[in-house]
Amino acid sequence: MTGTLLEVERLSKTFQVRRGFLGGATGTVHALSNVSFSVGVGETFGLVGESGCGKSTAGRSILRLVEPDAGRVRFKGEDVLTARAAQLRRLRREMQIVFQDPYSSLNPRRTIGQTLAEPMAVHGLGGAGEIAETVRAVLAEVGMPSDAAAKYPHEFSGGQRQRIGIARALVLQPELIVADEPVSALDVSIQAQILVLLRGLQEHRKLSFIFISHDLGVVRHFCRRVAVMYLGRIVETGPVPAIFDEPLHPYTQALRSASPVPDPKARVAMAKLEGEVASALAPPAGCHFHPRCPHAMEICKRVYPAWTHVGKDRGVACHLFPAPAAASALTP
Amino acid sequence: MSERSTEPVLVVENLTTEFRIGGTWYPAVRRVGFTLGRNETLALVGESGCGKSITALSIIGLVPKANGRVAAGRVLLAGRDLLSLDEREMEKIRGNRISMIFQEPMTSLNPVLPVGFQVAEALRYHTDLSPKAARARALALLEHVKIPSAARRFNDYPHQFSGGMRQRVMIAVALACGPEVLLADEPTTALDVTIQAQVLALLAELKASDGMAMIFITHNLGVVASIADRVAVMYAGDIVELAPVDELFAHPTHPYTEALLRSIPRVDRDAFDLKPIPGQVPPITAMPAGCRYADRCPLRIERCSVEVPPLAPVPGLRGHQARCWVRAGAGAGAEAA
User: Fold this and answer.
1) Burial (Cβ within 10 Å: 0-12, 13-18, ≥19) of residue A326
2) What is the tens place of the pLDDT at every residue in B140-151?
3) ipTM of this complex prediction, to 2 decimal places
4) Pick among A218, A257, A268, A292 to test the B interface (most B CBs inside 10 A)
């Protein structure tokens, strides 16, 4: 790796929600607890997990689209969370986001050209001529016809809209893109087109990605390293082929074996995992996964497992892998 | 097994369903035909708009009447053509001998009625069980679909259940009258994978224990491989390939099936060979004259753009049919390697 682009340390976020009859009571959702990871220059880093595990909140907290409660985010050494308005605007030029739903993330009343030009105008990047030139170049780069700039979002298919969403992220020439389920709303054949496009962009522009997805197949295809999340915490990280071929955490194992593979000889070991994800309003004591874990031990019900480094590039939070006493102080 | 048990439960012949767009009727499902054996799961797989859901809605008589119609074909349930029945007769069949479950259980369940009531309601409508007997049977059904502490949750409302549990409730409603055929339209698509695995296991178990046949509609070939006995691949309103599940994955024959399998990023394999399908599905209002996949097909010959290929046997493969001039039917096998 040629250096670290982004460092995330002990990021935490809670949301207050109203519950009960007519919203009389309040509860606290622990969306993120002590989430730490880093992304190298040009690296594709995956965040995987099921609904409500905090992967999207993590992505948004890094850009401060959601203000985290605690933790630290450093982008090329600069502290993102303490940045003031002007500094934050400059940082956001370099960190862009692509959303899942290309239908709701584009303004239906603006032409594609207007949508793509706006961020450049906001950041004062060149005059009208230069901006138009960039719009044309970026549209070509994402495989859109040149007359797309004059059209409106409804004139495009889902796959094309996602290309436009990607183009919008690219016009500011960012170094990091947070891609939040960018292919989940698309049909398989279109999904593959977008993945190939993203891969090409990543290689040509040396882009770094935080790639958020629930689909292990997509993550295996796109990412070099991955963190698996469960109920607001990272439970395992590691390099991509290894983590799916030899998952360590029982949750990663369950996720892997429940992911369907297009091969009848590998019918998923169905229903290995009992129960459902607990509510983030009241995560179970100890390891949050213990009520569903086939290996749960006494200690799992009481103590959240410390982070353990396994080998040089993997880590896991599970009592099956006890940490050497000295190394257990910090999560990854 | 007796002769009778090998007879199909459901036969779909030449089914064509059309939708009206700007005053003209366009086929969304075109001359679709297949048989469904007792205790068999047939997967209908394809991308958005391929006609897989419309096929199911046509079978159960729920094509929206405002702008849709079944234009031709027969749907034979134990020899009786459902398409010839009027709505009153169809109501006796729907939810009774053929049931359907949908992708989003929250929109199929009534939010202001307790779940136990909704299961019992299906029984009260189709049987002459007393209210008390229907409630007892409903509770047994909720236990059958493995709702934890079903007795305690009998009077809970749908919003008090998780997505996976709601889908179990829907399954209980659908199975209440012991249908011969269950139509399952993307029943696990809205669920997380670990919950999806549980629901798929439940459906497979129920199919075996209740002996029903199932048409399982999905866009996910991984799910197909997990649950199907036979598979029909649909593209732009046509069945383009029909084969036993092992056959289909071992010898994908239609160029679309083959391309689809190559475009799936797989969790069990490194990704170097991901190949997207160029272009997109033609719009329903502008379908090409010949094979509907011709424009995207690398094997296209002149004939493909002119004449619609029939669903024909694939040479050398048992029970395997494909709609392709190049690879199926009498003229197949001439393709250069």
Assistant:
1) exposed
2) 999 999 898 999
3) 0.87
4) A268
